[in-house]
Amino acid sequence: MAEQTQTEGRARNDDAPVEKKPAAAKSIRLRIALVAAVLGIGGFFWWLHGRNFEDTDDAQVDGNISAVSARVPGTVTAVHAQDNQLVKTGDLLVELDTADLEVAAAQARAAVAQAEAGFAAENPNVAITQTSNRASLTSAQDEIDNARADLSAAQRDLEQAEAQNKFAQAQRERAEQLMQAKTISPADYDQRVAQADVAKAAVEAARQRVAQRRARLATAESRFTETQVNAPRQLVAREAGVQVRRANLELARAQLRQAELSLSYAKIVAPAAGVLGKKAVNVGDRVQPGQQLFALTQTGELWVTANFRETQIEKMRPGQRAELHVDALDRDYTGAVESFAGATGSRFSLLPPENAAGNYVKVVQRIPVRLRLDPGQPEAERLRPGMSVEPRVRVR
User: Fold this and answer.
1) Alpha helix (H) ranges present in the chain?
2) How far apart are CA 295 and CA 87, in angstroms?
3) What is the pLDDT of residues 180-194, one digit of tens each?
4) CA distances (Å), origin 266, targets 206, 256, 275
5) Taking the alpha carbons of 238, 244, 249, 250 in that order, is the dihedral positive or negative?
6) Is 182 left (phi over 0), alpha (psi -120 to 50) or beta?
7) SS3 396
8) pLDDT of res. 383
9) Which pLDDT belongs to residue 7?
10) Rounded CA separation 344/155 (Å)
11) Would 40 be classed as within a structural domain?
12) Does residue 19 fall inside a structural domain?
């Protein structure tokens, strides 16, 4: 009996684990199902969340980089800046020798003084010419009036002389008749003949005076007409001379202004605030206009250029908010979509693709998108153009 009891006990102990195995397997399967469900639900919600955003790792901080160059030729006498130096607008960077520029400015000032003197000498001539023309016209008119008066007087004298001559000739004829009738003495006859001859000569003299006065009137009228015609021409000529003097004066002043500007350009200053780089100038160098001396990165206004795939910008619009992760600083910044490029990046390349060549392969293109950074963010002054950025734009 004891052996039988022990045998039954061992049998029960052997059967116990067999009953527990299905329960453990069922528990494991349930856990796997739960994990899969959680992952599926999480993936679904991640997909719902992710479809509201578009991101890319092909982006970088961008900004304006100006070339600081010389505007006048000269020899460098001092350099006041170095690479990586922070500068403000108007900070002195380089000085050039001003000796030649000062000589040019002095010459320009002398030219201005000369032009001012010439203009001052020529300007009163217009008023003088106007006064002279008025006086000439008045004098010519007076001469005409006098000539007309003299002509009228000569014509009256002629009429009087003709009347006297007519009377004297009649007296002569009467005297001849009386002389034939011997009722007058020879002396009276001779006196009347002489009076008739004198009267006839007076008529001829009066006629000559009338002709002279008429010629004088014609001369006066001709002179008046000539003065009337020439006076405006003389005035125009004087005014033209004044305009030439004024133009010369303005030219001299402009040349003086240019000389003064060139003299001021001998001090090369920072055109904007930023960080200097690519220093290419030293004391003693001879520089020419347009020669680059520094590269100035304007850190005051930066943005992000993100090259999204063309399939990503379907729902992207200006003004949409963006999160910008800067790798170099390991910081997130905020911003917004500002604008889209006018063409794909490949079109702006040195050798744009030519799809008509026959070996066309369709490639997803990228569109440069400009993202504006919100102002006043921490450590924004540490941003530099070229830093890698991972932007994410909320499109829904």
Assistant:
1) 2-50, 99-122, 124-180, 186-264
2) 12
3) 877 778 888 788 888
4) 88, 16, 22
5) positive
6) left
7) coil
8) 94
9) 47
10) 103
11) no
12) no
pLDDT value of residue 3:
46
Regarding whether 313 and 193 lie in a shared domain, the answer is: no
**Domain containing 74: what range?**
55-97+274-394
Backbone angles phi, psi at 96, to 5 degrees: -110, 160
Residue 328 three-state SS: coil
Q: How far apart are CA 13 and CA 149, in angstroms?
A: 170
**Closest to 383 in 3D by CA, of 55, 57, 63:** 63
Do both 228 and 290 map to the same domain?
no
The DSSP line for 117-147 is HHHHHHTHHHHHHHHHHHHHHHHHHHHHHHH
216 and 321 share a domain? no
Longest pairwise C-alpha distance within the chain: 234
139-177 as b/e, with b when 16 or more CB fall inside 10 Å? Answer: ebeebbeebbebbeebbebbeebbebbeebbebbeebee
> Structure pTM?
0.64
Q: Are 353 and 360 in contact (CB under 8 A)?
A: no
Residues 157 and 236 in one domain: yes
Read off the pLDDT of residues 138-184 as tens digits, 9 standing for 90 and up. Answer: 888 888 888 888 888 888 888 888 888 888 888 888 888 887 877 77
**Is-contact 271 249, C-beta < 8 A?**
no
Question: Considering Cα of 9, then 15, then 19, then 21, what sign does the dihedral take?
Answer: positive
